[in-house]
């Protein structure tokens, strides 16, 4: 039986982005401990971008309310 997937809300997407950003920050820290600074910086940048996207989603939800 097929189940119909619902479109995620902006609030749920923002929370998911935040959780993923936290995991990415943790991974970047581990990469630094291993001495892989270049890749750690790239992961940090991705985490920052996800956090910015979550903030933008929150602001769009607040503006539409």
UniProtKB/TrEMBL annotation:
This is Uncharacterized protein.
């Amino acid at each position: 039986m097929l189940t119909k997937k619902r479109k995620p809300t902006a609030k749920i997407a923002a929370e998911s982005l935040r959780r993923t950003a936290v995991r990415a920050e943790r991974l970047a820290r581990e990469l630094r401990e291993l001495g892989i600074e270049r890749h750690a910086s790239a992961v940090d940048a991705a985490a920052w971008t996800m956090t910015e996207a979550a903030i933008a989603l929150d602001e769009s939800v607040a503006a539409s309310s």
